[in-house]
Records
---
Amino acid sequence: QKEVEQDPGPLSVPEGAIVSLNCTYSNSAFQYFMWYRQYSRKGPELLMYTYSSGNKEDGRFTAQVDKSSKYISLFIRDSQPSDSATYLCAMRVNNAGNMLTFGGGTRLMVKP
Amino acid sequence: GAVVSQHPSRVICKSGTSVKIECRSLDFQATTMFWYRQFPKQSLMLMATSNEGSKATYEQGVEKDKFLINHASLTLSTLTVTSAHPEDSSFYICSASAYSYTEAFFGQGTRLTVV
């Protein structure tokens, strides 16, 4: 069993839809949670990070963490074609020298 | 966020030659740098972790003599693929972080093609 599981997709939605991306994890020592967006043939770009259970909002993006269920989500409101990319969840323990454990990534396609 | 620059973005080399990829943190001192390899439609596979001034720590299955990593300064790490072969063709990505940072920042990636 992988430490971090993420549905690979692809997930195809119409423009304007609400998108929900999810990851589950097995290591209860994970303390910090991040979402990265990766366009084709580019390096990952940090979207959001959080370290506590609950919601964190930034524009159209909301990151949600439920440590009791070992489950994190990223919601994208009013999705745009420019949101089409691969989304990677990542997490780390507190003292891992910043080493991240990644999910497998979810490919998202937003159709105009 | 912090800026990490990776160069070159794309390189084609002949089989048997060596290729060097540079990763620079432009606006912060990166105490730790990570090198990843990514195959098409797959997630990032961590190859090695390097701390400034120390030898890199390689993940299981990664040949340290083939993938030479140098982290000589707080702003520069290099990955050299020695005696490259077609099976080394891949997308290589570096990331950099500092102890004061929660997150890591990624370079743009290097697409290596060995012919």
---
Amino acid sequence: NAGVTQTPKFQVLKTGQSMTLQCAQDMNHNSMYWYRQDPGMGLRLIYYSASEGTTDKGEVPNGYNVSRLNKREFSLRLESAAPSQTSVYFCASSRYDQPSGVYNEQFFGPGTRLTVL
Amino acid sequence: KNEVEQSPQNLTAQEGEFITINCSYSVGISALHWLQQHPGGGIVSLFMLSSGKKKHGRLIATINIQEKHSSLHITASHPRDSAVYICAVTGSARQLTFGSGTQLTVLP
């Protein structure tokens, strides 16, 4: 099993350019997440998808859109990149056990380092 | 005030020392997580716990729900334990809220 994979690993954009970060998991998890990590700020949730077909905003959703393409894939799109979006982006997935209402541990991808000039 | 506070922010230890990292939180939670982030950037889940104590190898995690406090202990520390250790909690919104991490350096 590959776990959680992300592409690309590195990206440099100019202000105003658009791009999509791809994420896929092969663990049959129903929940997927996008985080950004900035120095001194800790990880912050951008968007999440509790199950296939649903997406919800997290703490810092402005400037981003997401698509839960199917159970495996969850993409993050920057429509018009800004320097404030320079960050390391992590995708994660977990299994949500509906009967007990418990979200299990999250598995993280290797991250995408994005620089916006 | 951050919902999840970790201490210390930075910790340097000699190989073999017993290490403790603390985490306090201010909200009701369903679970607390300890994560490890290596210098290469990858993040790995170490523990998820909602009560008591868990042990995995040289790592021990404890939680006191009444005091809203958790500790991560590393026994017989080794230079390969050098990493950032992150505490996170699952609150009522069922999302993870993260602390800002503790940078641990273990010297040989």
---
Amino acid sequence: AQSVSQHNHHVILSEAASLELGCNYSYGGTVNLFWYVQYPGQHLQLLLKYFSGDPLVKGIKGFEAEFIKSKFSFNLRKPSVQWSDTAEYFCAAAGQGGGADGLTFGKGTHLIIQP
Amino acid sequence: EPEVTQTPSHQVTQMGQEVILRCVPISNHLYFYWYRQILGQKVEFLVSFYNNEISEKSEIFDDQFSVERPDGSNFTLKIRSTKLEDSAMYFCASSPTTGVNYGYTFGSGTRLTVV
């Protein structure tokens, strides 16, 4: 069965700290991977995505993620967080070849950045 | 930037009542989706819709759920007889084509509370 696990449900950091949010997936076949962010009261926004090629993916707002196939991981990183990064972060996966069956999401990580 | 619009943002209904959640996808998108997120749990795929019919549906999407695109603009999710456990945030999404390569655009969600 397809699944996505996010290990940290709540993370609290100070501004300028480095961030790494863990994500592991279990999928049969080739997988596409995503990180979404949901700011308070807003919709889910795509931060970055990985389909193939360079396993280090750069996204918006200074975020990046590294696909490590041997570890079935796709961790999200940011070298220096800002107060405005406070949000819910979701890792998601889908099989290659079609999105009709939808994305499989992790439970999300609630990130709080303290000034 | 084009948006997916969902109305209402919050709906309260009594158990056993029918509810209709409305979504206006991005105008040139062809694939439409509904997801839900029960409080504290992961975002779950409900259904995908293309060419006026359901493409895929999850096991959650049972006979009490239905979707339609009544006028070429709106995309609705109907819950025929709501139960307490239907309380959740419901997200609509659309994409220009199938295949997650293009990513989804999500709406801001409708918070459904069944009392």
